[in-house]
Automatic annotation (TrEMBL):
Source lineage: Bacteria, Bacillati, Bacillota, Bacilli, Bacillales
Name of the featured protein: DinB-like domain-containing protein
Domain DinB-like: 24-148
InterPro entries (alphabetical): DinB-like, DinB/YfiT-like
Gene3D superfamilies: dinb family like domain
Pfam name, any one: DinB_2
Organism: Virgibacillus phasianinus
Length: 164
């Protein structure tokens, strides 16, 4: 298996193809607005929506840098500000989920179209190549998907049985 095929599989497992962990689209499918903004009383955890905003921030920033559209890339003072929510409305919750899926798919399309040498070319504004940055983003997604699942379980919003 070549590195692009391997990474495409990892990338898809973060969004819409079940593997060892549930993909984010399926995790978020039945999360209501109230569940998306809920936080446990203790522990300083972020809400589900804040976690999705955080994932979206880094994927969108990478996409904009890859496309050379740095003027459109999201900005943050520090990592903590990447969890910032837009106005807390049901419509904005839906938009955040849709935008995340769109950006994730766009990055997947770029990966799928990339020639071998393109995979290892450094992306402007990043420390690494396309393949290494997407590998890191996939691992980052998987980590936070686990947190989102935990928050779902804490609220009783997690399905009793999964397909795996």
């Amino acid at each position: 298996m070549d590195v692009r095929t391997f990474l495409l599989q990892q990338w898809a497992s973060c969004l819409d193809e079940e593997d060892w962990f549930p993909p984010l689209e399926k995790v978020l499918k039945d999360i209501a607005f109230e569940q998306a903004i809920w936080k446990p009383d203790e522990g300083g955890m972020h809400s589900i929506w804040e976690l999705v905003c955080h994932l979206l921030f880094y994927e969108k920033r990478f996409l904009m840098r890859f496309l050379g559209e740095t003027a459109n890339e999201p900005q943050a003072e520090n990592n903590e500000s990447t969890f910032r929510l837009p106005a807390q409305t049901i419509e904005n919750w839906k938009k955040t989920k849709q935008e995340y899926a769109y950006v994730h798919r766009e990055l997947g399309k770029i990966l799928a179209k990339s020639e071998h040498e393109d995979l290892y070319r450094q992306v402007p504004g990043e420390d690494n190549s396309l393949v290494l940055e997407l590998k890191s983003l996939a691992m980052h997604d998987a980590y936070h998907i686990g947190q989102i699942v935990l928050l779902s379980k804490m609220q009783g919003a997690w399905a009793g049985k999964r397909s795996f």
